[in-house]
Amino acid sequence: MDEELIAKLEAKGFHGTIDRLKRGDITIEQARAELGGDNSHIKIPSIELPDPYEVAAELKRCGVHRMESWTRWAQKTSLRPGMDTKDWYKI
Predict the structure, then answer these.
(1) What number of CA atoms fall less than 13 Å from residue 74's CA on the CB side?
(2) What is the DSSP code string of 31-49?
C-alpha cells in the first residue's frame, strides 16, 4: 500500500477513497486519479447484494441464532445491508 498516497488522501479528507482502496474496490491508479480530481473515467463497481431469503435459509440451516444472523448478513453485504433490522428478522 502506498503510504504517501494515503497520507495525501487523508490530508484532503478523502476517507471514503481510502476505505475503498483498502477493501480493493479501486486500484491505486484510480485513487491517484481521484486525488488529482480526474474522476470522469473512474467506474466504481456496484456491489450485487445476495438474495436475503437464500442467506437467511442458509444461516437457519447452519443453526445460527437469530440475533447473530443480522451480523452475518451485514458482513456478507460488506456493511451495506440494504434493509432494516426489522425487515431482516421478518425473514
Answers:
(1) 9
(2) HHHHHHT--TT--PPPPPP
pLDDT in tens, the chain (91 residues): 678 888 888 888 888 888 888 888 888 888 888 877 655 555 666 667 889 999 999 999 999 998 899 999 888 887 778 888 888 888 8
How far lies 66's CA from each of 5, 53, 56, in Å? 42, 14, 9
Domain boundary assignment for the chain: 3-36, 52-90
Record the cell numbers describing residue 31, joined without a space.
485513487
Neighbours of 75 (CB within 10 A): 10
Question: Rounded to two decimals, what is the model's pTM?
Answer: 0.47
Please check whether residue 86 is in contact with residue 71, taking contact to mean a CB–CB distance below 8 angstroms.
Answer: no
CB-based burial, 35-70: b 16+ in 10 Å, e otherwise: eeeeeeeeeeeeeeeeebeebbeebeeeeeeeeebb
